[in-house]
Design a protein that fits this description.
Shape: elongated
Largest sheet: 6 strands, parallel
Distance between the termini: 41 Å
Helix content: 25-40%
Length: about 220
């Protein structure tokens, strides 16, 4: 089972930590504020007050044992950079860091961050798509060009199976799962039929997804 360390437990960091713990993973939460640590202690495996920019204190927590570090320090860019550098040097395999802007992101990548996220921007993308399209229920940006989208079945899909729809050839997308009410088919077959009230989880290039959005 993967072990996670979340450094910086503001709104975004605490949400990440609680969600990972709720999914059954071991989570160590680190923050410099004692009140924040007390507030999250019951929602994670371990919670420790520590200065993430002090290598000795972070090293004492056994960083090399963790599979993933999530650096979610808020407005203090210098602290974010230092924490990212320290956990990477201490041997954490995969480091995800929150960035304030593109320049901050470039620095994080240069010092070894494996992935940089922009929570506010990404949420803005998701909200905007939800506002303009009744069919796009949720969107996760995987990269600048590709996304995973939950989409309500288009009228033209209803009653047809995946083989006939040939989503990859006709729409440039791949169907990862089909939701029907509370049931989820995570390995849909070519013979599975799409119903009018189904929700499809698909992955595709943003240009192709936008074409589907325009049809909705």
């Amino acid at each position: 089972m993967k072990q996670f360390v979340v450094i910086g437990c503001g709104r975004f960091g605490s949400s990440v930590a609680r969600t990972l713990y709720g999914l059954g993973f071991d989570v160590l939460a680190i923050d410099g504020n004692e009140d924040v640590i007390q507030g999250i202690a019951d929602s994670v495996t371990h919670a420790v007050q520590a200065d993430a920019t002090e290598e000795a204190s972070i090293k004492s927590l056994g960083m090399s044992n963790f599979d993933v570090a999530v650096i979610t320090i808020g407005s203090n860019i210098q602290a974010s950079i230092m924490a990212t550098l320290i956990v990477k040097e201490l041997g954490v395999k995969h480091v995800v860091a929150k960035a304030q802007n593109e320049q901050h992101a470039k620095v994080l990548y240069k010092i070894g961050a494996d992935r940089v996220v922009f929570p506010e921007r990404d949420m803005g993308v998701r909200v905007a798509h939800n506002l303009v399209s009744s069919n796009f229920l949720d969107i996760i940006e995987l990269a600048p060009d590709y996304s995973i989208v939950e989409i309500s079945a288009l009228e033209e899909w209803a009653g047809k199976n995946l083989k006939d729809l040939n989503m990859r050839a006709n729409y440039g997308i791949n169907v990862m799962a089909i939701k029907h009410g509370t049931e989820i088919n995570i390995s849909p077959r070519a013979t599975d039929t799409v119903k009018g009230d189904d929700v499809l989880v698909v992955i595709g290039h943003n240009d192709d997804l936008q074409k589907i959005e325009q049809k909705a």
